[in-house]
Amino acid sequence: MIYSMTGYAVASEDSPRGALTLELRSVNSRFLDLQFRVAEELRAAEPMLRELIAARIARGKLDCRLSIGAAVRPETPRLNAPALERLKGLEKEIAKSFPAAAALSVAELLRWPGVLAEPAADEERTRGTLDKLCRRALDELCAARGREGARLALVIQERVAAMRKQLAAVAPLVPEAVAAQRAKISERLREALGTGDDDRARAEIALFAARSDVDEELSRLAAHLEEVERVLTRGGAAGKRLDFLAQELNREANTLASKAAGLKIADCALELKLLIEQIREQVQNIE
């Protein structure tokens, strides 16, 4: 499958700490560029998230946002018995020195640091929840990138088919166009040189024939198109390979345009360049 570098996914999961939400956004980039915005209390999970993402995504600028909300099922506060015993002992000692001192109220006791036991953060459980959350978000992101990649591949295949039609139409015209141009140049050279059989005229005609021979360019264009189709069929991380092939196609089309021996061949070269540019635009978004 061909994958686009553009996609979006979001996933949420409840945890003892609170509701976890992971958001992934990706756009095109030459390399894998990961940007993280992680809640401070979950900062320790960033290396794990980075490793999971890098194992699934090869290219693209990816923005990962991990946030935590209020706990869905907050635990009932518990009294810290050892802290209460220590506070009780302190109160007795103070009462000996200050008999008139007022006793602590229930509200004051509850506000005293350490009296209410804080639930211990289960790091291992939170890590497992984040692992599951990230994998689910990545599945959704890869599916979105795959759907977009399939559309891009279809567009490229349509352009390849159009280029093949252009090549098939222009190939039979080459010999006739070259022969007509050769006859025209031969006549002009004879008139200019004032002789009907001159070595220089023959040399110039031979040079023109060599420069006007576009069989090699047509063959290379066809070969590059076959390679584009092969890469699309194979799938995977194909963006860089397709970008290279688009550059090669453009180079051959430029050469074809410069050597065109007739108007129809020149028009074909121009149409090929337009189709190649459309392919390059799509390739920039492929992973």
What does this 3D model show about the protein?
This protein is of the alpha+beta class. It has 3 domains: 7-72 and 124-145, Ribosomal Protein S5, domain 2, CATH 3.30.230.10; 78-117; 146-283, Butyryl-CoA Dehydrogenase, subunit A, domain 3 (Up-down Bundle). It contains 9 helices and 6 strands, in the order βββαββααβαααααα. The protein has helices spanning 46-56, 81-97, 106-111, 123-170, 173-193, 199-212, 215-234, 239-259, 263-283; strands spanning 7-15, 18-27, 32-38, 60-68, 78-79, 116-117. The strands form 2 sheets. The protein has a 4-stranded mixed sheet, covered by helices on one side. The protein has a two-stranded antiparallel ribbon with strand order 5-6. Helix 4 (123-170) packs antiparallel against helix 9. The radius of gyration is 37 Å and the shape is rod-shaped. The model has no long low-confidence stretch (mean pLDDT 84).
